[in-house]
Structure formats: structure tokens, C-alpha cells
Amino acid sequence: MRTLKKTLIAALALAGSTAISVAAEVEVLHWWTSGGEAAALDVLKKDLESKGVTWKDMPVAGGGGEAAMTALRARVTGGNAPTSVQALGFDITDWAKQGVVGDLNETAAAEGWDAVVPAALQAFSKHDGKWISAPVNVHSTNWVWINKAALDAAGGKAPETWDELVAVLDAMKANGITPLAHGGQAWQDATVFDGVVLSLGADFYKAAFIDLDPAALGGEKMVEAFTRLAKLRSYVDDNFSGRDWNLASAMVIEGKGGMQMMGDWAKGEFLKAGKVPGTDFVCIRFPGTQGAVTFNADQFMMFKVGDDAKAAQLQMASSIMAPSFQSAFNVVKGSVPARTDVSNEAFDDCGKKGMADLAEASASGNLFGSMAHGHAAPAAVKNAVYDVVTAAFNGELDPAAAAAELAKVVAAAKQ
Amino acid sequence: MAAAPSPTRRPATDHVGWLQDNLPKLVLAPSFAAILVCVYGFILFTLWLSFTNAKLLPTDFDRYVGLANYVALFEHRNWRISLTNLAIFAPLYMILCTIIGLGLAILLDQKIRIEGVLRPIYLYPMALSFIVTGVAWKWFLDPGIGLEAVVRSWGWEAFEFRWIKNNDMAIYTIVIAAVWQSSGFVMAMFLAGLRGIDNEILKAAQIDGASNWHLYTRIIIPLMRPAFLSAFVVLAHLAIKTYDLVIAMTGGGPGRATYIPAIAMYDFTFTRQSMGIGASSAIIMLCMIAAVIVPYLYSELRQGRQQ
Question: Which domains are delineated in chain B?
């Protein structure tokens, strides 16, 4: 068995090393094809072309990168991995374990990445002490986007605790709008749940979702978390299931919905509709999670390439990490830079707050990977959590049963 | 395929004769080899994979785990939901398609005037992909913009039809869409069966004074046994491998309420990076389809031998 495995891997490696790659060309597999994202990526493309590196585009859209990951599987199995692949969280770790990724240490040491990239992010960008991918951005997921007019009608004060949140939601309900705009898809349910769990304490979030401690996953506090989730469900309209996240954002923009609990990519929808942060909409951290951040980060993972293509690959990594690109890209994308030393000048109020929060959370050790977005646990565990959270949100499990089920399925998926 | 040696063969053109004899085999060989490797080879590969702890890639395993993947699969909530849903979906889909298809075929067979126009209309849904059908029905059944909203705008304010948003009823909306799509196709199969029945038999029965009802229940439908069998096999395997329709219509939701085996299989293999469990679910699906196809093939082959 072991020999067979080794033979297969050797065959893969051989096929990879004999593949002819044209010098000064990078082939990039990604799923950023929609307007704003494509424009943001164009910044990188232009920068590389000015340095004599040609960009061979390989876009595979759809499913939040799922389709791209399936395409990547075929490429790697065929021994013909692209130079660079957009990837998220534990997917990077999974590929690193296959021994097919490249080594960026040369550039990382020269440019001092270790000092400027938050440690929680380095956990994914580095494997066995080697830099294997270049982080482009940090999205944080524990945001709440509130329609300013709806908030004013509901008392005007942005909620800072769970009780205040419930009071605002009740007031919005009394005003005749849908208090919580939400789309019923497993990952959206889980995004809300990230915030709920974090609001019960950063230590609790870490124990349950990062350390996967069975006592925390099945304990009293988790029952409380599911009770809060069920409470939030009562503020969502009946037609929510299957709704895309951007349609939920549109409800808040139009004032039909009061607020949305979603990562900072939602800001792009508000800005596109011509709304101004602070005047038309308000961005706050999920009440009770101030000072802590759950993140997910897009990275460009680098695969092993021949010596002739190595220079272009390192050039690409260097361009991604350049502060000017980090700023230009993230202003367009709605996220914040993956390094903490970038000037916040070009960002709007929500962006500035996001950058300050990230630096603060990183310094205090309260920066955690998001469970809903594959940065807290590997895919098998993440999806097991999805199953339980979405069942609880849809009323198929009561809070006590959901907590017990959560501990059970996570234990099974960890194997 | 074994051609008899040609009596006119001469020694001078021996290789031409050889070529003539073996041409069919040579032409068929590449596709035969391709099918052998790409279909049956990979079925065996999947079977083997289902006994390993492969995760991200097929090469990514270090030990055999016996039947552990199958145990994990059947303990998984999503797989149990999938099987329950299949048990609801498959029989309803097959029975409704057969009844509606047969009804339409019999009505179209009454020598009506514009049959040539009507037949394609019923057959047309089959020309759509399941994705299109799924999206169209998703919008049509959506309470906010579809049927419910339209009926309410006509003044019937209390009208309610929101099965697609209901955990318990959503699977039935999948049945509706699938039946809409496939009934016309089943109709075409039955129509061909009806046209194949010898008119002499029917005339004889009519002379003997058989009513129309008896004509159908006692003579025509029993004579159409092969058409029923074909319809059953086609519908059964369509039901088991249904995937795109559900993805387009509900995405498996609300929650996991409309999960079916094919979705669970894709989910395990590509989303959860548990290729071993995914392979075991694929093998279970293969067994289900084999349970339908093998008896059918067996009866067909036996009939062939008897003739």
C-alpha cells in the first residue's frame, strides 16, 4: 500500500517536473470573475505585466471557489499544477500536506513578511516554516450592516450588547419591516452563528471552534448559542430559504430589511447602490464581539514549478504583498489589507474601522479564523457544523439537541 | 461478429481478406478499450477507493479501513435524509410519469386532427435541461414572485402555496417539476408502443363486441408490456441519478431537506474532502441502479435466446 502510494506520488512529481513552462509567465487559477473583483485583480495583472511577467488567466467561477478547487484537483492529479491558485484557509493546508506547493521563503525573508502579517494568518500562509502562499486580503465576518433610517426609527442607537440587539430588532418588527434580512443557505446560517458564538466570549469561540473541545461544543453555552440563533430566526421573513446574500443586502439597502449579519463583502453592495457609510448605513461589529474579529482571507497559494518559472512566481508573490497593491485591491474589494502596516488613507469609514479592529484583535490575540468560511477547521468539520447549524436554523433541532448533535458530528468528522 | 471465411478469397489478397474479416473488430476496439478502462475500470477503482481512508485526492490515503466508510455513510444524517427523500421521490415520479404519459398517449392516439402539433408540445419539456426546468419552477413556486404572489394579486388574498419553502413539503415540489419534464417523453414511448399494436387484433376484438374500456385494459395495455418495462428502467435510473434539478431548484434546501443521494455523493467527495465516504456512496448508488437494470437485462437476454 505504502509503496503504491509512493509510486503514484513519484509519478505525479515526475510528470510535474517534465512539464514545460514558458519563462516569465504565471498561470493563475481563480474565481474572481464578477465586476469589482475582476477589476481588482486587473491591478495585479497590470503590475506584473509592467515587470515583464505575462499573466495566463484561468478563471473557474462559481460556488465560492468550490468549482475552482475541483478543477485544481484534476490539474494536480494530472501532474500539471498552475503556478498560483486562489485558495482559502484549510484548503491551503490540505494541499501543503500533499507536498505539491512551492517555497516563497527567499522573497518573504527579503521583504520581512513575518513582521507585518498577523500571526493568525501566517498559520495558513506558512507550512513547516515555509511561506507557501501570499495573502491578498482579510475579510472579517462578524459585521452587522444596518439601514440608518430603519435604525433611527428604532431608537437610533447602534446595539452593543445582545439585549440591545433584541430591543432594536423588536422595534424594527413593530415598525413593520423585516428586522433581519437573511438568506437561507448553509454558509449564511453559519456566518450568523459565528457571530453568535463569538458574542458569548472569545475564549468560548476558541475552545469550541478552533480547539474543537467536545465539552464546549456540547455544553451549556452552546445550548445558549443555539437559543440565540433560534431567537434571530424569529426576526427573519418566511421567504428566506435559498435567498442569495446580495439579495438580502438589497433588502437592507431598500429599507425593506433592517439589518444583515454578513462579512464585509456586503459593503460592496451598499457602495455600488450609492450608499454612504455613516449616513445611509451603519457598520458595527456583531453586538458583544467588539475587540474580537473572525476572519477569512483570500490567498494566492504557489505550487511547485521548475526553476525557469520560479522567478516569475516569486515576482508575483512580491507584487501581491506590496503595500500599494494591498491598498488598491482592498479598497475595491471591501476587505482590509493582509498586512497591518498599510496606510488607511484610501479607505472609507467602515474600511478604517475594519483595519483598526484587525490590528487590535491581532495584538490582543482575539483574531480567530471563521468557522463558516473554512478558517477554523478543515472542510469535513466545517460542513458537519453547517449541517447542524442549518438544521437548527430551520427548526429541525431544538437548542439542546443541536448542541449534542454538534459535539457528535464534529467528533465523527475529525477522524 | 465472427464472419465466415469468404469463399472467393484468393491467396494474393490474403491481407485484404484478413482486413475485411477483422475490420469490425478493429473499428470497435478503441471504443471497447475506452469503455473498459474509463467505465468499468473506474468503477473498480471507486470500489477500491471506498475501502480506503482517501481524503483530498485519490492518492491521499495510507491505509485500508474495511467497511468503515460505509458505516460512517449510513450513520450520517445527510445520507439518511437522502435515502428517505429518494424513497419519496422515485416511486411518485415513476408512477405519476407513467400514468400521465399513458393518459396523454391514449388521448393523442384517438386519431385527432392536430396531433402533429400537439405531440411536440408535450415532448418539448424533455428538450430543456434540468437546470432550466429547475430555475423556472423555482421562480414559479417562489411565494414572493411566483404562483402565490400572482394569485394574491388577482384578489384571492388568503391563497397560500409555499411548499418549496417548507422542510416537509419541498421534496414534493421536486416531484412536480420532474414529472412535468419527463411525462412527455414517457408519452412518446407509449405512443410508439400503441402504434406498434397490430390493428387486426383490435378489429377482431371490436367485432367480438369489446367496449373501448375493455379494449384498452384487456388487450392494448397488456400488449404494451415492453414499453412499460423500458419506461420503468429509464425513469428509475433518472430518479436515482437526479442531481441538477434539485441543485437548480432548492440547492438541497431548505436546510438539507431536499438532499438526494447524488448531491450527498458530490458533497462528500468534493466539498467535505472525504473521498473514501464519497466513493462508498457512489457504490451504493451503483448497487441501486444495478438492482433495476440487471433484472431487466436478464429478462431481455433470456427472451432473445428463446426467440
Answer: 13-49 (no CATH), 76-306 (1.10.3720.10)
